[in-house]
């Protein structure tokens, strides 16, 4: 698997969390999922998508049977396909597939997704849950859609969901995609507000080249724009593979919000806590010490090594670090995620800007994600 694929989960997360907030469009199409199957491989296709351009897909399938693992290979050579999640129970398996691209995925209302390969004995469901995303990777509908699933025979007729162990049709030949040209490593960033001599240029270029982070507009990255608490938690939730979660008990986290399940998962994993008044404040602006604390708890939850410590004594404002953030800030300094502001301060109460988030996530991936995945 290439680096491009390994960073795709975070790419989708960052794009979902950091893109401009646009109004949700009204859905008029009634999509359906069809598939052909050969043994343990199911070729998936979405039909009836209408004419609206689709730039991202999240598809959830509940299969009858127990599968230990699942892999997904996209049809398009330019699409990002993070590692799909596979949660097996005694009688069923929940599989979630993510797919996104910088250009529309669908053509004439059809999206040939790719191939899903599963281990174990399984039966495809009759229904699936589908979320379609627009150019800014915002949902096109108010919530996930329930779509019909049917098996497509080689002759073109379809039937309901069927067992993975019966009547295997001859698989449809898969056309060989034409590889897209790789961008030159020396190409410049398209952002007018990211100068080559800016301290964050290399970090922004890193996350952009890896497909991890896009701009807020065609020629703008908005490096000094703030980041919200809900955005960061959503980024980490997607990076973890979007595990099963419930909406948390915070009164200001409403079901249906893009950050609802991420905050629920993060609370269950003790990655985040609410404020003393019981609220989470998902739209609250993220501070540097909150960023360090959430990353520290996330790293522990993922089983990463978090024993490193750095001295905070050299920062003139170390006394303003909140007690809950002292250890995480020491860890973040110790592993090189955080450094001073250039004036002898670490600015724990200051807002974490998009440039700072890009830099810190770049360092985090190089220190932990790349190492754990053997990059």
Account of the protein in words:
The chain is globular. It is of the alpha+beta class. The chain is 23% helix and 19% strand.
Question: Could you give a short description of this structure?
Answer:
With 375 residues, the protein is of the alpha+beta class.
Number of strands: 11
What spatial form do the alpha-carbon principal axes imply? globular
SS field, number of helical segments: 8
| SSE string, helices as H and strands as E | HHEEEEEEEEEEEHHHHHH
Largest sheet: 11 strands, mixed
Mean pLDDT: 79
- Summing up helix and strand content along with how strands pair, one would put the structural category as alpha+beta
In percent terms, what proportion of residues is strand? Answer: 15-25%
Q: Gyration radius, to the nearest Å? A: 22 Å
Helix content: 10-25%
> Alpha-carbon distance between the termini?
10 Å
Poorly predicted ranges? 1-8, 16-27, 155-186
Secondary-structure topology with pairs:
Layout: H1 3-6, H2 8-18, E1 32-38, E2 41-47, E3 56-66, E4 70-74, E5 85-88, E6 92-100, E7 111-118, E8 121-123, E9 127-133, E10 145-152, E11 158-159, H3 201-209, H4 229-239, H5 260-268, H6 288-301, H7 326-334, H8 354-372
Helix pairs in contact: 2-4, 3-8, 4-5, 4-6, 6-7
Keywords:
alpha+beta; eleven-stranded mixed sheet; globular; 23% helix; 375 residues; 8 helices; 11 strands
């Amino acid at each position: 698997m290439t680096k491009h694929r390994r960073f795709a989960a975070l790419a989708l997360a960052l794009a979902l969390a950091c893109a401009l907030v646009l109004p949700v469009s009204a859905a008029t199409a009634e999509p359906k999922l069809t598939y052909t199957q050969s043994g343990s491989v199911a070729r998936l296709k979405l039909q009836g998508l209408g004419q609206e351009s689709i730039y991202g897909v999240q598809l959830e399938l509940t299969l009858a049977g127990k599968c230990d693992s699942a892999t997904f290979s996209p049809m398009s050579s330019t699409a990002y396909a993070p590692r799909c999640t596979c949660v097996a129970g005694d009688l069923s398996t929940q599989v979630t597939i993510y797919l996104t691209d910088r250009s529309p995925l669908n053509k004439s209302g059809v999206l040939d997704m790719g191939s899903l390969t599963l281990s174990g004995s399984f039966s495809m469901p009759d229904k699936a849950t589908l979320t379609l995303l627009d150019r800014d990777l915002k949902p096109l509908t108010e919530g996930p859609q329930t779509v019909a699933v049917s098996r497509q025979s080689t002759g073109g007729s379809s039937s309901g969901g069927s067992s993975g162990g019966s009547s295997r049709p001859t698989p449809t030949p898969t056309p060989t995609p034409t590889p897209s040209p790789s961008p030159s490593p020396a190409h410049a960033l398209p952002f007018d507000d990211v100068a080559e001599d800016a301290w964050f240029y290399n970090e922004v270029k890193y996350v952009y080249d890896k497909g991890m982070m896009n701009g807020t507009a065609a020629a703008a990255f908005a490096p000094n724009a703030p980041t919200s608490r809900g955005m960061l938690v959503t980024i980490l939730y997607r990076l973890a593979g979007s595990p099963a979660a419930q909406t948390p008990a915070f009164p200001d986290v409403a079901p249906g919000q893009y950050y609802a399940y991420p905050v629920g998962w993060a609370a269950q994993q003790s990655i985040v806590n609410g404020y003393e008044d019981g609220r989470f404040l998902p739209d609250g602006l993220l501070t540097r010490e909150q960023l360090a604390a959430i990353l520290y708890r996330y790293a522990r939850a993922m089983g990463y090594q978090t024993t490193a410590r750095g001295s905070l004594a050299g920062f003139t404002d170390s006394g303003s670090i909140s007690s809950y953030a002292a250890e995480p800030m020491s860890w973040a300094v110790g592993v090189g995620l955080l450094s001073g502001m250039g004036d002898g301060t670490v600015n724990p109460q200051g807002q974490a800007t998009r440039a700072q988030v890009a830099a810190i996530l770049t360092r985090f991936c190089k220190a932990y994600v790349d190492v754990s995945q053997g990059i």
